[in-house]
Write a structure and sequence with these properties.
Distance between the termini of chain A: 14 Å
Order of helices and strands of chain A: HH
CATH class of chain A: Mainly Alpha
Number of helices of chain A: 2
Radius of gyration of chain B: 19 Å
Radius of gyration of chain A: 20 Å
Oligomer: heterodimer
Largest interface: A-B, 32 and 28 residues
Shape of chain B: elongated
Distance between the termini of chain B: 25 Å
Largest sheet of chain A: none
Amino acid sequence: MSYGGGYGGGAGGAPKQDDHAIMEQVKSQLQMQMVQEFYQTVRDKCFKVCFSSPGSSFSSSDQKCLSRCMDRYQDYPR
Amino acid sequence: MAAPDQQVSPELQQFIARESQVAQIQSMISSLTEVCWDTCIQSPGNYLSSKESSCLENCARRFVESTQYILQRAAHKADGSSSGF
């Protein structure tokens, strides 16, 4: 995902090199935060779906349920 | 927001990484508490019954395992293909 648009220069013209580095870091951190929040949501939704009565082990059918749920949750916005 | 890496000392970077990790774990525990309460406690009594206790224990463990499983699977997928979802 890209954050589009140019960055307006200050009164002096082109942004300084330091500003560019900070801009890139901000974009990167925002992106990471977004991805993290996405997977937390996936975790919350899919746990509720797959573990409505939590058992005493994490079985392979539990894993399959989580995998399926993850894939569907990622598919559907398209 | 953090300054560019060149201006941040290694000690400060380590501090940020550690504090971020602690915050993530606290956030997971907070979510876990809410979800497992909803799952296991229907009508709060004067104490936790053994049924409620064992449900909460199972729920907490499965929640942590699910979190790890989902993050590992997501990282694995990210390795194999370009980023973006």
